[in-house]
Amino acid sequence: MPLSVVVPVFNERDNILPLLGEIAATLRGHTAFEIVYVDDASRDDTLAVLQAARARFPELRILRHRVQSGQSTAVWNGVCAARGAWIATLDGDGQNDPADIPKLLAARAVATPAVKLFAGWRTTRRDGFSKRISSKIANGVRARLLHDATPDTGCGLKLFERAMFLRLPYFDHMHRFLPALVRRAGHACQSVPVAHRPRTRGVSKYGMWNRLWVGLSDLHGVAWLMRRTRLTGIDEL
């Protein structure tokens, strides 16, 4: 299985079928793939919509958290369960365009083996003012402390090697720091311009508080990890 598309969701019942349709339309006939949805203990009928969708989308697999655990845990569990050697992630709100997955795959095809993460870069944001400004501040603070050379770590659209990801340290909110963690592990990252769409269904789960301030302690923790890392080549004698 070359590619697994992992989609974390929480209370996204109206976005399930449209996004599944776009993923399938983009990838069918082009590559072998599976779609792994991880329902983070939704309180609406997200799970029922997903279960009904399997009749139309045989590529679909469904995981469900017994307790709401957050986006990073949903991504982690989805990657652990995935069968593909490479993982593409998408936010479940429909703001990432699945049609951009081939852009990431094309970038991988011409990149050196050192590049293990291809990160979507939303060059034109389609969010409200408060969301844009909090992301801009958070990106600026993060770049100043971590020097991760990534203009947009918050984009949910990413492509990375599964084996590499599973060697990274897991913690809540780790998805916000993936480029820094990948570089800390000695690999390279590449940002790829992608589209960004306004949310047309459902309600955003992030605001100024949980997007900016909650991540400060995590940011200092990741900075500590990077300072304490020692990388060296290894010779077998």
UniProtKB/TrEMBL annotation:
<dbReference type="GO" id="GO:0005886">
    <property type="term" value="C:plasma membrane"/>
</dbReference>
<dbReference type="InterPro" id="IPR001173">
    <property type="entry name" value="Glyco_trans_2-like"/>
</dbReference>
<dbReference type="InterPro" id="IPR050256">
    <property type="entry name" value="Glycosyltransferase_2"/>
</dbReference>
<keyword id="KW-1133">Transmembrane helix</keyword>
<dbReference type="GO" id="GO:0099621">
    <property type="term" value="F:undecaprenyl-phosphate 4-deoxy-4-formamido-L-arabinose transferase activity"/>
</dbReference>
<dbReference type="InterPro" id="IPR029044">
    <property type="entry name" value="Nucleotide-diphossugar_trans"/>
</dbReference>
<protein>
    <submittedName>
        <fullName>Dolichol-phosphate mannosyltransferase</fullName>
    </submittedName>
</protein>
<dbReference type="Pfam" id="PF00535">
    <property type="entry name" value="Glycos_transf_2"/>
</dbReference>
<feature type="domain" description="Glycosyltransferase 2-like">
    <location>
        <begin position="4"/>
        <end position="165"/>
    </location>
</feature>
<keyword id="KW-0448">Lipopolysaccharide biosynthesis</keyword>
<dbReference type="GO" id="GO:0009103">
    <property type="term" value="P:lipopolysaccharide biosynthetic process"/>
</dbReference>
<keyword id="KW-1003">Cell membrane</keyword>
<keyword id="KW-0808">Transferase</keyword>
<keyword id="KW-0328">Glycosyltransferase</keyword>
<keyword id="KW-0472">Membrane</keyword>
<keyword id="KW-0812">Transmembrane</keyword>
